[in-house]
Amino acid sequence: MLSNKNVFHACYTKVNPSVEVENPQLVAWSESVAELLDLDPSEFERPDFPLIFSGASPLVGAVPYAQCYGGHQFGTWAGQLGDGRAITLGEVLNAKSERWELQLKGAGKTPYSRFADGLAVLRSSIREFLCSEAMHSLGIPTTRALCLVTTGKYVTRDMFYDGNPKDEPGAIVCRVAQSFLRFGSYQIHASRGKEDLDIVRTLADYTIRHHFPHVENMSKSESLSFSTGKEDNSLVDLTSNKYAGLIVTPAFVVRWIILAWAVEVAERTASLVSRWQGVGFTHGVLNTDNMSVLGLSIDYGPFGFLDAFDPSYTPNTTDLPGRRYCFANQPDIGLWNIAQFASSLSFAELITDKEANYAMERYGTKFMDEYQAIITRKLGLPKYNKQLISKLLNNMAVDKVDYTNFFRLLSNIKADTSIPEQELLVPLKSVLLDIGKERKEAWTSWVQTYIEEDTFGI
Question: Which GO terms describe its cellular component (predicted)?
């Protein structure tokens, strides 16, 4: 009997998949993910494959578990959350010595399910399978999907939350990532005070050793600039024996490693969010328990991609009143979440408050650098032009221009200043529908400036 009580002093709980199946079927798989795992594609043809990856039959050598974590949901601390319908089968070490975790989403109840059934439906499972693989193909860091299996059973869901539940086909996605650790994995233990602070330290040490070994193995000639608590930023140089008047002890080196790790988490998160903004991806539920410490897109729930450009767009119906997680807010939410993550490390005395602030500063710098590079490249410009880009985004918002199709069509505009004014908008006509004279003039002016910038880099 699984308990819904809080789980203390533990990062995970061992639990076996418990989903009921009836003639489970393999309906989708990714050969590129199989390759990551050194899994021969012929394995997909095994009769017992759907049984194993629905959780109905045990995977030899697996010790399944559900992870314990907490999180801020819509800006409010929610306490313990955890893997409510995800069960990790274990970890594969491939021929390249890469670690890959296999996780079944929708495989039944766990101690963290609370009042939910731990199941998933085919509709949402298809979305997760397709989006995770699409995001990877777009060059955006993400969890992957090995396979999708239908259970042969039905699951009752109220799709539109309107009081009309319906039975839907059940399904399970096997998610793959080098780790499913989240910001909330550290937060939950920091929130529980002194008794659990050692767990924060142990988990941070584990994370660095297994997933950020380059940080732990940095040469002592490496340096990192961060706030010393004085007016200026000083440089940590481990080749010397002193730093800001302090002796560089082994304990100091450990703190320096933790800070370097926190900064990298911040920068990976900033890089991830900048790439989301570049393709118009809106996650929809950026709670801290849905933020990967590896900087991966994770937990594809009510996500969406921009169609008509609307900075306030959110695909999450529960986010509609305040639109906290709308497209335009994602960069700031990423920073807010980093602040919560860094705060948990600070509370555990792994870094200082000032060092936590430094990690946040690095997030802001990294985001701006990467986003500017992405949008400049997306426009094919020789250099970043803030005024040109601001006018473009304003025009797109006013006229609700399709975000993806616009940039696709923009590639048809030639960098030729001799093009007659009346022909400038021809390549964009399918996305500039039903706009009046004033708006046509605004777009014509922008295209003229764009061509000049693209041609002369003025």
Answer: chloroplast thylakoid
Q: Is the pLDDT of residue 376 over 70?
A: yes
Residue of 289, 299, 399, 402 marked active site: 289
CB 425 within 8 A of CB 332: no
- How far does Cα 78 stand from its chain's mean position? 20
Amino acid 254: pLDDT: 83
- Tell me the per-residue pLDDT of 37-90, one tens digit each, with 9 for 90 and over: 999 999 999 999 999 999 999 999 899 999 999 999 999 999 999 999 999 999
pLDDT digits over 82-106, tens only? 999 999 999 999 999 999 999 999 9
CA–CA dist 39, 41 (Å, integer): 6
Active site residue 289: yes
- Overall average pLDDT of the 264-289 stretch: 99
What gap in Å lies between CA 374 and CA 235, rounded to an integer? Answer: 30
Spatial strand order of the sheet with 99-105 comes to: 12-14, 65-67, 86-93, 99-105, 166-177, 144-157, 25-29
Backbone angles phi, psi at 156, to 5 degrees: -85, 125
Distance, in Å, from the CA atom of 51 to the CA atom of 25, rounded to the nearest integer, reads 8
Q: Which two tokens stand for residue 80?
A: 């313990």
Long-range contacts of 446-449 (CB under 8 A, 24+ apart): 446/388, 446/391, 446/392, 446/395, 447/413, 448/421, 448/424, 449/388, 449/391
DSSP 154-186: EEEE-TTSSS--EEEEEEEEEEEES---BHHHH
Return the structure tokens found at 410.
């923009």
How many whole angstroms separate alpha carbon 181 and alpha carbon 274?
Answer: 21
| Burial class, 194, CB count within 10 angstroms (exposed 0-12 / middle 13-18 / buried 19+) | exposed
Q: Given the structure tokens 């731990």, which residue do they identify?
A: 118
In whole angstroms, give the CA distance from residue 372 to residue 378: 10
Instruction: Supply the mean pLDDT for the chain.
Output: 92
C-alpha separations of 115 from 82, 85, 109, 111, 263 in Å: 13, 11, 9, 10, 37
The span from the CA of 104 to the CA of 58, in Å, is 12
